[in-house]
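Aim 2 progress. For MFS transporter, the working sequence is reproduced below.
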Amino acid sequence: MPLALLALAISAFGIGTTEFVTNGLLPEVAGDFDVSIPTAGLLTSGYALGVVVGAPVLTAATTRIRRKHLLIGLMVLFIAGNLVAALAPTYGLLMTGRVLSALCHGAFFGVGSVVAAGLVSPDKKAGAISLMFTGLTLANVLGMPMGTVLGQHFGWRSAFWGVVVLGLVGLVGIATLVPNEQVAEESNLRSELAAFRKPQVWLGLAVTAIGFSGLLASFTYVTPMMTDVAGFSSSSITWLLALYGLGLVAGNYFGGKAADRALTATIFTLLIALAVVLLLFTFTAHNKVAAVITLFVLGGVGFGTIPPLQTRVMQLAGGPATLVSAANIAAFNLGAAVGAWLGGAAIDAGLGYTSPNWVGAVITTVGIFLAVVSVGMERRNRPKNTIIAATGASTESAPAPASRT
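Predicted structure tokens for this construct:
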């Protein structure tokens, strides 16, 4: 494994930790600023919106900057945002710090995906991307619980100071380990935007947003599902979330490995598995053992979709893919926000705490249909010898890794 991938993974761990850390510290934040728990919860929504806006805007504005320099700049912005949050005297400034740190999220993972893919041979691109995203998955298993414990014992600000330290470690790693390659001459805003003229790229983004959103439709409401329906105590939620996080790590790793062998087949297999597991969760949530097993598998198949979906949309760009890659990160987050909203709407409609599961299954099924349309269009529009085979992720016509210039 190139050491540069380790630097990207450490940075991803810090970014993932700050994304989720407020979830475990809402009472402390609410009490400190004398706001309600739902108002404190808006810190998560504000972060998500910052990701959706920052991913395409920052990436589009920096297409002529060397990718290493851009990653360094994004980590500086990330550290600054968390410093603002750690020192914030008011709720408004805390929200400002959250949004500032979120702005770098999508651009970092978008550019980082291109850099990671360029560090390895073409047949290992999805695996390299999954290794970078391992940092994000470990943030669920280790970062969020560690930040919660730190914040509960030393005040919520200490969690943000911890994230600042992680950001500094990632910054040093990127500065010393990531190759300083020049951006290709054709990699400018016009060439990056050219990819968005392709209907296939928009279909790829739609598959990401809609297919992945089913996962968050369910997981957003996993706490009341596991306590009120499955019958677990509130104290059990910590280890249940850790178990789910282990599923994320496993799914991310094996999803990347499988995608390198058979990209299209992996996407279909995992999306279908996600829809099936979500539907089953509607019923298994009523039994403790079955609910625990389903929760772990849900994390695995859900997060396993990220490396292949990210790889495919970069491949569909057919040229400079940094902006498309960042747009796909925004699509993941947009899908998460919409999925969470639809799951909540089902609960508000009186359909019960298990309803987000079957709602998620329906949403993901729509994503599968769009994937079928996308692959069908690709096969009709391309000569047989240049079609990306369903049993392999690369062909003679596949674009070279975008960061090899």
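Confidence is low (pLDDT under 50) at residues 385-405. This observation will guide construct design in the next reporting period.
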